[in-house]
């Protein structure tokens, strides 16, 4: 009976010893698994530069041009609302901003300041030259001749100056009346009055 008890106790001791060994191995394995095998990277980069942020607008996007202007510079791309891009510079008055735009010639483009929000400061840059047109427009002389109207010259009337104006002159009228025999008009009136009185007297005498 004693041998049986000793055997059971020995078996239990062996099982406990194996369990203890297995637990220690598992703990060590977990600890080893947590140890990194490489070097831990550290952040050594410098802070980012200026950027532009496309603000909300009616179109929902902003055109990117080859230069700072709408005349002489073509549209080379677009940026949608909410997009950010590195800002490289601006014009002297600050109305156009140059940004980094990969995929085009030179890798840069220009955008209108009212369409973006500039975060940071950028230097002043010289604008690039305007693009030279690939072809020079020429006028077809045959087509132009169809619209030419030959207007004959019109002879203008000649001007003939009028003759000299003749103004008639009249002699002033005489204020004294005279008869053909140069008898004063007063003498004739007195004579007629005397004849009238004399005739009246004769008529009165005859009537009596």
Could you characterize the architecture of this molecule?
It is built from 3 helices and 7 strands, in the order H-E-E-E-E-E-E-E-H-H. A 5-stranded antiparallel β-sheet has the order 6-5-4-1-7, with no helix packed on it. A two-stranded antiparallel ribbon has the order 2-3. It is an alpha+beta fold and 208 residues long. Strand 5 and strand 6 (108-112) form a beta hairpin. The protein has a domain at 51-119: SH3 Domains (SH3 type barrels, Roll), CATH 2.30.30.40. It starts with a helix and ends with a helix. The longest helix is centred in the N-terminal third of the chain and has 33 residues, at 2-34. The protein is 29% helix and 17% strand. The protein is rod-shaped.
